[in-house]
Specification:
alpha+beta; about 30% helix; seven-stranded antiparallel β-sheet; 2 helices; about 35% strand
Length: about 150
Amino acid sequence: MLNQADEKAFSLLEKAVDKAQISLQNTKSFQPFMMLLDDDDGEIIFYHHNIENSEKSYAQLEKDLEERMHKKDIDIVVLVMDTVMPKGLSSESSTAIRIHLEEKSQIKHKIGARFIYVPYTLNTVTKGKVYVTLYTPVAVGFPAEYIKMP
């Protein structure tokens, strides 16, 4: 049974994957984006930049997150980007949606953050329409980078 914090994180993950999948279907790619769950009112805050270079866009999102963390408490952070599967992780595809997940409820643990790789393939169905096949996610844990102990 999931607790309330886990349910919030799962819901945010689901929204992030859905957004990335829709963008992949429409444009065959997506720019990095970030979703934050505000600690006070449960509001989801969405960030993205129209920076063509994905790495620069992701770096700007990280700066936005650092600034935001100084202003207000954040419960859950989700940073999302299009990437290739790291070597050593088995997958049905070489491309993946990478989700960097951090939750305030997990920072007391040594492994307080995760990269969740959602492998995918793009399939052309008819008349240029694209269907995205998502495969089993692969999680990699590591110490939290953004949300810190008070």
